[in-house]
Amino acid sequence: MRLSRAFLPTLKETPADAQIASHRLMLRAGMVRQTSAGIYAWLPLGWRVLQKVEQIVREEQDRAGAQEILMPTIQTADLWRTSGRYDAYGPEMLRLQDRHDREMLYGPTNEEMVTDIFKTYAKSYRDLPRNLYHIQWKFRDEVRPRFGVMRGREFLMKDAYSFDLDYAGAQKSYRQMFVAYLRTFARMGLKAIPMQADTGPIGGNLSHEFLILAETGESQVYLHRDLLEFDALSQPVDYDGDLSPVMDFWTSRYAATDEKHDAAAWAQVPAERQVSARGIEIGHIFYFGTKYSAAMGLQVAGADGKMVVPEMGSYGIGVSRLVGAIIEANHDEAGIRWPEAIAPFKVAVLNLKQGDAATDALCDRLYAAFDPDAVYDDRADRAGVKFADADLMGYPWQAIVGPRGAAVGKVELKRRATGERLELSLEDAIARIKA
RNA sequence: CGGGGCGUGGCGCAGUCUGGUAGCGCAUCUGCUUUGGGAGCAGAGGGUCGGAGGUUCGAAUCCUCUCGCCCCGACCA
């Protein structure tokens, strides 16, 4: 993407409405534009990041055996009356009427709908287990939206729903999602810690929240340091095998939000291993048995011919929230420091002197080597503007080319995360970035 | 939902108390100079002050109603 042709606006000054770092930086970097309280338009830079996050979520869901569908944003009130939640959900649900005065709603979640869909086709125990997910915009009419995309009213969520024949099967599905979540967040460069959680209004009796540590987190959390030091990607995962050991590792070390905090258990953790900090919730998984399958009338024939009500769970990741959370965990005074896996572009080519033949030539070759995963700052601006914008936008690599280096065929590489700088030949620079 | 605050060019703000018909910085446009960390000089364009009603000779400033947004708390992916 050539910046001279791109819609990648930046702001020098911070809009007064933005309080926390991720919100400020998303506005300054031109990632989003607020259109009303808790509702955002995603501009090219933000949209690219959102899609990268979404894609990692998708790949790990698929790997874990879940299958992607896409359900609508608008649902009928009748579907929710069947489960009893139309009245129970309260004012957080955005209710609408169509031209025939039919009562509709903008979906805040999809247990009813997915169960209703699944019920139409699943007739036998052979149709189980299944796990269906979609990545779709949700709307929850929060009393108080805030923190930019971290607590919006409209937000992009991945929600998966598992259907199993019995409790043992449901536990297996739960563990699959548990492990898939660890991998998903680790791939984004995040240390996400699963913690025992309240099941909330969705109900059920087994639930974990996944949180990352960040000063601006909304929850107080307590955890064993082992959990921060373990690399969730270090071991291969066999989703058909027994995942209990993995889950046991994570659940045997202390980790809890203040709601579930147990002072006595916490005291058992060696003091030097105790970590108490603020956390941001980025995922939540529930097992809730037959709550919705029973309410929605889902039954399948068991092997013995008797009808069985399947056991369900649901598994959510706040995809748009993750963008904000990742920034909270990866920024400094100058701007964002994207982890490579979700960076909007891997490298920014900074041409410090437009029109200098040697400089232009080196930049062209660098850009060609990485397009479309590169931005080329070919604007008629001064060097300082380009440095500042590249730091703000947070591309993992800056390939800086000016007449001084170009005269001797050198490119200066700057690594955003560390500030490390290297002076390399064109070929070495390309190889270094690709490494 | 309880408490607090704010709406004035794209962004950040002053002006409101003590009514007199809108100002500053950044950004934008033009020209010249400058060119490795958000340049300098000169010139230019852009708002009728969230909205409605009222008081007044006159309202961004006073009054009433209303809409929107933000912060703290309680609740949530």
UniProtKB/TrEMBL annotation:
NCBIfam families, sorted: PRK12325.1 (NF008979), proS_fam_II (TIGR00409)
Keywords, comma-separated and alphabetical: Aminoacyl-tRNA synthetase, ATP-binding, Cytoplasm, Ligase, Nucleotide-binding, Protein biosynthesis
Name under which the protein is recorded: Proline--tRNA ligase
Lineage: superkingdom: Bacteria
SUPFAM superfamilies reported in the protein's UniProt record: Class II aaRS ABD-related, Class II aaRS and biotin synthetases
Start and end residues of each Aminoacyl-transfer RNA synthetases class-II family profile domain: 38-339
Location in or out of the cell: Cytoplasm
Record gene name: proS
Subunit text: Homodimer.
A Pfam cross-reference name: HGTP_anticodon
Catalytically driven reaction(s): tRNA(Pro) + L-proline + ATP = L-prolyl-tRNA(Pro) + AMP + diphosphate
Role description: Catalyzes the attachment of proline to tRNA(Pro) in a two-step reaction: proline is first activated by ATP to form Pro-AMP and then transferred to the acceptor end of tRNA(Pro).
Species annotation: Paeniroseomonas aquatica
GO molecular function: proline-tRNA ligase activity
UniProt-listed Enzyme Commission number(s): 6.1.1.15
Family to which the UniProt record says this protein belongs: Belongs to the class-II aminoacyl-tRNA synthetase family. ProS type 2 subfamily.
Location (main, coarse): cytoplasm
Enzyme class: ligase
Keyword presence, Protein biosynthesis: yes
